[in-house]
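Hi W.,

Here's what went into the run:
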Amino acid sequence: MNSKINKLLRTVFILFVFNFSLPVLAGGSLFEIRADGLACPYCAYGIEKKFMAIKGVKHVDIKLKEGLVIVSGDENLILEEPELKILFDDAGFTYRTIKKLDSKK
Amino acid sequence: MIIKHQQKRLCLGLAGCLLSTGNVFAHDPVFSPGPHVLFKDGFEIHAEFAQSEQGDEKESEQAVAFKYGLSGDWVVGIELPYETVKDDLGTEQGVGDMTLSTKYRFWRKDTLGVQETAAIVAKVKLDTGDDQVGSGTTDTLLGFTYGYESLKWYRWASVRYRFNQDRSIENKGNLQRGDRLFVDFAGGYRPKVNDYREADTVWLLEFNGEYSGRNAFNGVNRNNTGGSQWFVSPGIMWTLRNFAVKAGVQIPVLSNLNGEQDDSDYRARLEFEWHL
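Here's what came out:
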């Protein structure tokens, strides 16, 4: 009986770990972008919408206090400065810098 | 008598125009325009409910508006109201005048967590409404607005001027309606800065001033028209990602209306917005 429970728990644990490791195993990319003018979350929605329209972008988060936009996407996602300047201008904000982060961290 | 009745109705129609002069954008104050615009190719769906009382007159308005971001600094919109006016003469209701609007943000200064901007506003209220509630004229509004937004504090200021077109009343005469000047100051406070995907609340306090010139009928000034009023307007702005709810009430604090006119009792407004 105990061994059956242990086996079940082990299976659940493996499935759990595997599930949360998927993005890392898939080797996604992660970018940290600094932008100015981010004063309210409602106004920042345009940034999310613009990034989500780019092929390969999977998720966008915005940290207002730090003025950061965190973009995660496919392994071969490339974000170039000229297109980011236009993207942020179209969203109504000012692009500053971009940094590629280690997505496994 | 008929003309007098029509003039009163017209004044009520003008009050309706007052309700709809708000038609504000996005993260702006409730009763006055701010410099906010939409992102490029963004859509805004806006539903608005407004109510006001002035003496025996009670007016309510429901309006829908659609806006589109031509660029990150330029937005155009269209608004269609439905109005109900009740007074001692009875109740009138119908589709109000359609308004076309545009706003261009010509200056923007972005720093970390702060955005300072200025914009010009233009609106044209068309003569499209039902006779009972429409003003029967095409009126133009031009304005300027400035805004400072930070994560904690907001402040806005705006000035608008509405050029009212003369109106003929069924070949019985010509009514020259006084132009209107609006001056607004507003402040906002965000008690807590939440994460992007969490709900956000900003408390607002506005000071709205209105000056209206006298109406004239066949070149003769009407005594009981025009004047100035100031309102204090507390409000709230609640947002969740791309959805916003705004509400506020205008309370008259200073009134200097010409002749015998009822002071405004209150004006209230509730708005819902979606950005798509």
